Amino acid sequence: MSITAHEAMWFLPFVLPVCLYVCFTDLREMRITNQAVLVLAALFVVIGPFLLPLPDYGWRLAHLVVVLVIGFLLNAGGAIGAGDAKFAAAAAPFVALGDMRILLAIFAANLLAAFFTHRLVKYTPLRRIAPHWKSWDMGWKFPMGLSLGGTLAIYLALGAAYGA
């Protein structure tokens, strides 16, 4: 992995609660809050300069802008939700560019697992644990925050264990 273990270990304890919160709120309300997105972006802005050389830090901030523009275009086309686009943009600086293939593989596996788990629970008695979650009654719509938050958390955990 291109991310250093040191970098991932420092980011993970701060980012993990935000990722879990995003998963929960998207399941419960079918929305990713602006507060969660702002906290995630602020974590990188505050912690990043201590972990990355200044040029790398600047390029990682550029990732945020590029992913935000792409996300807004996808949102305008109806492909993804606005919260998903904003979360992906706020998460982008935490990902080393050299790990893009690994990240996409984690996302694909996580998306499939989250989708099938969500659909399985939706039609079983386990649904009674949280009967009023909005995501149960949204037809084919899926709470992508479950996959997006999980992907960032898994990526940083793998980076902490196997990073450069």
TrEMBL record:
What Pfam families has UniProt attached to this entry? Answer: Peptidase_A24
Gene Ontology terms: cellular component: membrane
Which residue intervals define the domain Prepilin type IV endopeptidase peptidase in the entry? 15-116
One GO MF term attached to the UniProt entry = aspartic-type endopeptidase activity
Question: Which key words are in the record?
Answer: Membrane, Transmembrane, Transmembrane helix
Positions of transmembrane segments = 35-54, 61-82, 102-121, 142-162
User: Signal peptide position in this chain?
Assistant: none
Q: Does the keyword Membrane apply?
A: yes
**Name by which UniProt lists this protein:** Prepilin type IV endopeptidase peptidase domain-containing protein
What is the organism lineage in this UniProt record?
Answer: Bacteria, Pseudomonadati, Pseudomonadota, Alphaproteobacteria, Rhodobacterales
